[in-house]
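Hello forum,

I keep getting stuck at the same step: I have a sequence, I want structure tokens, and every attempt I make locally crashes halfway through. Rather than fight my setup again tonight, could one of you with a working pipeline run this one for me? It's a single chain of 318 residues.
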Amino acid sequence: MAKKTKEIPVYFFAGFLESGKTSFILETLKEEQFQDGLKTVYILCEEGLEEIPGEILKKNRFIVREIENEEDMTEQLFLEIDKKDRPDRVVIEFNGTWDPDSLMEKLPDHWLIAEGITTIDASTYEDYLNNMKQMMTRQFTYADLVLFNRCSESMNLPSYKRTVRGLNRQAQILFEMTDGTINNNVKEELPYDMNASEIRVEDDDFGIWYIDTFENLDAYIGKTVSFKGVVRKSIRGIPSDTFVPGRFAMTCCAEDIQFFGFPCRYEKTQELKEREYVNVTARIDKEMNKRFGQETPVLYAETVTPAEPPKEKVIYLI
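Reply #2:
Ran it on my machine without issues. Output:
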């Protein structure tokens, strides 16, 4: 019987140069979170202004391996590192200008992502998002934690939070202020009245409502909402008495347009036509979603009526 290959946990750090990746790793080392006697291969994909002192690396049994060019990032290279160094775990400080999907495709099968951490310099975030949106947004793909640092009260932190939520609903988001404190009270001012007997979601506000419903689901339970959406019924796995009203949204560019919507229980679902626009008034509830392993929103329709298409058929989710 063949010996099973040992699984190697990988800790993946994403973010642009000077976003705070090295500082985060250094602080983790100083807190002695890696002082457990295990051997760590530290794969460094760019050189920043800050370096981790050699004595700290040695104390934590870190072996440094550098990758200078994106084209050098090959499956063979990682297999050679695995064979030569025999790590117990791997830490990758990634280059923010490289493609993380390409990295994931080249990692050995027994190297498994244990945690993804993305650091963002809040003072340059909007410039990167406006000028290099695709490169910026892919920083969030594999993140379990997104840390915005160098934040100030004058920044539009709620919109930063919504950006991440539009791309990665599972990530924890933290805001570190310039004085080093963590701000856990970043909430967005919603464009609709949560206290109204019926929450009216305008066409341009669908993305905000969609993201906030996942973010603050319990606040919506039992609420009645009205909105315009396009009908989707040909989605695998949904019951015959359910359709999904929603909108097509662009998170970055035309190539990544996706459909976003909520399952909606409706006894006359069979009378609806695929991709027709409808006005929906529904009560919001929740149920366990096996795919996400958590409770997610579900709607119970009170009325569904034909509607004219919105002025903009594709919305921006971020």
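The chain has a mean pLDDT of 92. If your local run keeps crashing, start a new thread with the error log.
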